[in-house]
Amino acid sequence: MAMLAANSNLPKRIRGLEEIAPFYDGFILDLWGVVHDGVKPFEHTVETLQELKRAKRIVWLLSNAPRRARIVAEKLSDMGIPEDLYDGVLTSGEATWMALKEKYLEKWGRRCFHLGPREKDASLYEGLIIDIVETPEEADFVLNSGVYDFNDTADKYQPILQACMDRGLPMLCANPDRIVHVEDRLVICPGTFADTYEQMGGTVTYFGKPHRGVYSLCLQNMGVQKVLAVGDGMQTDIAGATGAGLDSVLVTSGIHRDEVADENRLQDLLRRYPYRPAYLMYRFCW
Fold first, then answer.
1. What are phi and psi of 113, to 5 degrees?
2. Helix (H, G, I), strand (E, B) or coil at 241
3. What value does the mean pLDDT of the chain take?
């Protein structure tokens, strides 16, 4: 039910979810940039989740975090967002783990070069029969979960990507996001490496938003018909919701915050994509 603002061709602006909650039975919420900033919840997050629960709405959290869902749930609890405020959580890391288990270890082989912080993201292959090797030359495929350090720049990883390309390794991307804000810092994500690898001629298989599979899993578990997706990324959250046939809200204080400083810039942003959200909201709030 895309609605246009009265005096422009922009999506309808809303102050909070209370205005539109009666139209939807369930909500799929992005995490980073909507619910929290990577370190702590945003100001209105807990209150908004409480109101959604009070309104008896089904809430699933859908994140492109390259970690198993339980790891993310534990981090949310540590932040002060308890599990009883939502009905489920799905991550791109969980989808990657499932795909490794069910398909790709048999298809490609079990020798994996992990491009990313191994200790932090080891849950991607916990419990699987897999051999994590030290160099691309030893590997059957590359598992991409992002930077080793938030301060790293993309050029640091070019030799690694070239070595993977020279070997002809297929890549699994455990997080299609390209950049993310960690508090006030901009950090590159696995999607940046995946884009570069494809430009070099490499083959990449993605798990997470905007790809349909994660939305299908959420919707199967939610068991309701009218679902709204809330996110801050046009290329992931809004694209994914559109592909899944869902209305969406773009939170403008998130990843695109520097591109929506005024209405003209916001329109320029929206014109770059063949899809758009139904609503605009400055921050995640009730």
1. -95, 115
2. helix
3. 94
Query: What is the reported pLDDT for 238?
Result: 98
User: Mapping DSSP to helix (H, G, I), strand (E, B) and coil, where does residue 67 land?
Assistant: coil
| CA dist., res. 233 & res. 251, Å (int) | 8
pTM of the model: 0.90
Residue 265: how many other CB atoms lie within 10 Å: 13
Three-state DSSP class for residue 277:
coil
Residues 238, 283, 22, CA angle at the centre, nearest 5°?
75
| Spatial CB neighbours of 220, under 8 Å, sequence gap ≥ 6 | none
Encoding tokens for residue 87?
């009905």
Q: Residue 113 is which amino acid?
A: F
Q: How far apart are CA 162 and CA 228, in angstroms?
A: 40
For residue 179, how many C-alpha atoms fall within 13 Å in the half-sphere facing its CB?
15
* Domains, the chain, with CATH or none: 12-64+209-281 (3.40.50.1000), 107-206 (3.40.50.1000)
Backbone angles phi, psi at 53, to 5 degrees: -65, -40
259 closest CA partner among 242, 280, 278: 280
d(CA 148, CA 264) in angstroms, rounded, equals 37
Beta pairing, strands 141-144 & 111-115: parallel
Q: Is the pLDDT of residue 285 over 70?
A: yes
DSSP state of 203: -
Q: Do 214 and 95 contact (CB within 8 A), yes or no? A: yes
C-alpha distances in Å from residue 7, one per residue of 19, 80, 248, 249: 19, 40, 21, 19
Which are the contacts of 10, defined by CB distance < 8 A and separation ≥ 6?
A: 4, 263, 266, 267, 270, 280
Q: Are 34 and 235 in contact (CB under 8 A)?
A: no
